[in-house]
Amino acid sequence: MMKKSAKARVIAYYLPQFHPIPENDAAWGRGFTEWTNVAKARPLFRGHYQPRIPADLGFYDLRLPEIREQQAELAREAGIEGFCYWHYWFGGGKMLLQRPFEEVLSSGRPDFPFCLCWANHSWTTKTWNKDSSKAEDTMIAEQQYLGEEDDIAHFEYCLPAFKDSRYITVDGKPVFGIFEPFHHPHARQFMETWRRLAAENGLKGIYFYAITRSANFNRFMPDGTVGRVMPNLKSSADDYEAMLAQGYDALNSTGQVRAEMAYYNKYVNLGLIGLRKYLPFIPATRFNYSRLIKNFFAPEDTWENVFPTVFPQWDRSPRIGKAEGVYVHATPQHFEQHMRDALHTVEKKEPDHRIIFLRSWNEWAEGNYVEPDLRYGHGFLEAIKNVIL
After folding, report:
1. Where along the chain do its domains lie?
2. Cα torsion for 227, 232, 236, 240, to the nearest 10°?
């Protein structure tokens, strides 16, 4: 339930890739973590804020419990309700980056709410490689969907978390997200299995949400197949209704594509994407954040079962170079306005559904974080606090 002192439930996505694992060692060299790309980033244009250097917590290692405690304290002080950990289950018990969350669960520390979102996508060497000329795309871990037996094993792995008193709930049910709903070939069956198992294990159910864009190129068709459509910048109703019809309880909408298309107009934006694919030498597209955020939320983000997303910053150049746009003038002051717009979007909902997802707590290589850095200090955390508490 939402804290009585908070105006909305802010849940922050949390990346656990700040410790080495054998798979990354094999693909990138020993000791690779998210910090590897962060530290070697360089400006693409005059005034480009790179590299980004952490302040209070330094270049931390998530194997250290004191770091996890400090993160929770910073988030708590800002009014953030809890962390949503990216959860990597590739099928057949294959997992990656699970250590930080498993230690949080087993130790009971930090005493800070959490939930899980299944990042159900394959890992390849393109995921963290900004050299677009690299010819080979090597598989690191393939996402597989192995059927009911694997779904049961997956549930049993998550069950101790669902039963933990810290686990975030909506309508009394543990919250569980699916990152790539279009990629799951039997999502409805998966959710039915988990709901049955939840009831058998004394839970009220599972509250499933799907992450989806408010301006989407994909849409579920009436026969259950996925079709291609031109994004509608005026209304997300058709996209949202088609996704909810798959059996989800709610949606976590992301307005990034909608905002970027509205910035120039969607055809110009599509043209820039196409040009960069074939002409990689052209400069990175820049979006003025203060103007961009004016078109971030769709009218349907006010629906009771749609939870909008706020983006404090965005700059994936440490991972992928010039392949995507860079948000410039993404300051704490402008982010505070973005937060106020999000609060206005959810303020008429029932308190338990007054959720705003923060993307993200610590995606440093995407320039998408609120943890303190050397330029803005605690500015982004203070912006959340000013609006929420």
Report:
1. 9-388
2. 0
pLDDT at 162 over 90: yes
Q: Calculate the CA dihedral of residues 327, 332, 333, 335 and round it to 10 degrees.
A: 60
Residue 132 has pLDDT above 50, yes or no: no
39 CB-contact burial (10 Å; exposed 0-12 / middle 13-18 / buried 19+): middle
Task: Say which residues have a Cβ less than 8 Å from residue 356's Cβ, sequence separation at least 6.
Answer: 8, 9, 10, 11, 307, 308, 309, 310, 339, 342, 343, 346
Closest CA to 74 of 377, 313, 331, 387: 377
User: Do the beta carbons of residue 127 and residue 27 sit within 8 Å?
Assistant: no
Closest among 104, 186, 175 to 144, alpha carbons compared: 186
How does pLDDT run across 22-42, given as a tens digit for each residue?
999 999 999 999 999 999 999
Contact indicator for 117, 177 with CB cutoff of 8 Å: yes
Phi, psi (degrees; rounded to nearest 5) at 130: -90, 0
CA–CA gap between residue 301 and residue 255 (Å, rounded): 9
Distance separating alpha carbons of residues 161 and 115, to the nearest angstrom: 8
- Residue 35 tokens read as 């910090």
Q: Is the pLDDT of residue 109 over 60?
A: yes
Q: How far apart are CA 272 and CA 285, in angstroms?
A: 8
Q: Tokens in use for 162?
A: 């669902």
From CA 347, how far away is CA 351, in angstroms rounded?
Answer: 8
Helix ranges, 91-211 (H) = 99-107, 148-162, 187-200
Token digits of residue 321? 């170079």
pTM equals 0.96
Strand bridging mode 306-310 / 250-254: parallel
Place of tokens 């088609």: 242
Helical H segments across 95-147, by residue range: 99-107
Contact 373, 26 (CB under 8 A): no
Arch. (CATH architecture) of 9-388: Alpha-Beta Barrel (3.20)
Report how far residue 170's alpha carbon sits from residue 133's, in angstroms, rounded to the nearest whole number: 45
DSSP-assigned beta bridge partners for residue 260:
none
| pLDDT of 238 | 96
> CA 246, CA 243: separation in Å to the nearest integer?
6
